[in-house]
Specification:
405 residues, alpha/beta, 2 domains, eight-stranded mixed beta sheet, six-stranded mixed beta sheet, 10 helices, 19 strands, binds flavin-adenine dinucleotide
Length: 405
């Protein structure tokens, strides 16, 4: 990669005419967008973020497992994450407020994706794409897996892919707070209110209607309301294929030491990673995976799927103890499980930043940058994200990502 965070921050925008940009949703996508819009030295636009809950109690950004990986099969997803790595490494500087430097706790312990016989060829194909995009991932054959991770059971493993750098996990809530605080310090206004719909006239969005009956007018609008985005799009007749889907995360303790544990994604679909000394978190995408369920932990997953799978992959996990659990929503793109980044085809002043289906928080710096460029220059020029634009939804041409977790 030849670009970096500083490349964008030092550049000039092509249009700085003092417009008003209204962002609906102040989670990590909306706040990253606000930060990138406001951070250019020549910015003259007024930036308003409408966020209904400043505690972010149900926001995905506050309930995320916050993993970072480049192990995708789609170039745009790999590039967005690679930009995210650069950003996380510099976050304490670029998001600093005077002497106050946010710590986003980036643990570069790697991801270890495990393939059984059925997934081996796909893993090799994906790895080639990742190397082409500059990812520092290696394929590990049986002997090497044994040498690096002696605490793993190797039953049913054909191949694994491991991130040597730029992969791991971080403090997603810390990143969100870093974006919010810096965006406010740069002059963005956060309005505490619930949006109930957009107002449209002559093929342009003119404003946002709030629950108290008031309206906020603007020139450009960003829809970044996470899993709650679809009803807002529906208010102007857009069928946005983004739905809330519940994901349960369980924490557990393990007395035996697990040396140099990365974020492991087993061939069964179960993932786990360390979360402090002797503590871990884990989860799995449920099957079936219905839309719009209440935000509640599905404890049957622990007994019936997770514990048995964990114990068979790591013998030391036979005597673990579950210590807690929480549930959050994926903002799931039911069309192709990828983010939607860019303007609507007819309502050109409505820009989407939603639908990231479980890989959004790692991509949030790259998405904020791309949306800011689309608004300021008409095109995202730093990262090639056009494949993730609205056109594919309209043309019914899904972008197939083989590594959705
Ligand atoms: C359990 C779990 C694990 C995850 N693990 C990972 C991971 O390992 N790696 C990764 O990259 N991603 C992961 N994700 C996904 C990631 O967290 C999300 O993609 C990301 O946080 C989405 O950010 P967002 O800003 O779009 O949504 P949110 O954080 O949900 O923010 C949307 C905001 O919009 C506000 N809002 C909604 N409607 C309105 C309205 N009408 N008016 C005003 N405000 C409104 C909400 O209050 C909310 O604050 C995970 C998610 C979950 C739930």
């Amino acid at each position: 990669m030849t670009w970096s965070v500083e490349t964008f921050l030092g550049s000039k925008s092509m249009t700085t005419s003092g417009r008003r940009i209204v962002i609906v949703g102040g989670g990590v996508m909306g706040s990253s967008t606000a930060y990138f819009l406001a951070s250019r030295p020549d910015n003259e636009d007024e930036i308003i973020v409408i966020e209904r809950d400043s505690t972010y109690a149900k926001a995905s950004s506050a309930l995320s497992a916050s993993g970072m990986r480049q192990q995708f099969s789609t170039p745009a997803n790999i590039d967005l994450s690679t930009f995210g790595v650069d950003f996380l490494r510099k976050a304490s500087t670029v998001l600093a407020l005077g002497d106050e430097k946010p710590d986003v706790g980036f643990h570069e312990n790697g991801y270890l994706l495990i393939a059984g016989p059925a997934g081996e060829q796909t893993m090799r194909d994906n790895h080639r794409i990742q190397l082409d995009r500059g990812a520092k991932n290696v394929l590990l054959e049986q002997d090497e897996i044994r040498r690096r991770f002696p605490w793993l059971s190797h039953d049913g493993i054909s191949l694994a892919c491991f991130g040597l750098a730029g992969e791991g996990w971080f403090d997603g809530y810390g990143l969100l707070q870093g974006f919010v605080r810096k965006a406010k310090a740069l002059g963005c206004t956060y309005v505490s209110a619930k949006a109930i719909g957009f107002l449209e006239k002559d093929n342009r969005i003119r404003g946002v209607e709030l629950e108290d009956g008031s309206q906020i007018s603007g020139d450009t609008f960003v829809l970044a309301a996470g899993c709650w985005s679809a009803p807002l799009a529906a208010s102007v007749g857009i069928d946005l294929p983004v739905r809330p889907r519940v994901r349960s995360v369980f924490s557990f303790s393990c007395r035996s030491p697990i040396d140099k544990c990365p974020l492991v994604v087993d061939s069964s679909g179960v993932y786990f990673r360390p979360e402090g000394q002797g503590q871990f978190i884990c989860g799995i995408s449920p099957d079936p995976d219905p839309d719009d369920m209440p935000l509640e932990v599905d404890y049957t997953q622990w007994d019936e799927i997770l514990w048995p799978a964990l114990a068979s992959r790591v013998p030391a996990f036979e005597s673990i103890k579950m210590t807690g659990a929480w549930a959050g929503y994926y903002e799931f793109n039911t069309f192709d499980h990828n983010g939607i980044i860019g303007a609507h085809s007819a309502l050109r002043n409505l820009v989407f930043a939603t639908g990231f289906s479980g890989h959004g928080i790692m991509q949030s710096p790259g998405v904020g940058l791309s949306v800011a460029e689309i608004i300021q220059n008409g095109i995202a020029s730093t990262i090639e994200v056009s494949a993730l634009g609205w056109a594919r939804i309209e043309d019914r041409k899904p972008v197939i990502e083989r590594n959705v977790i």
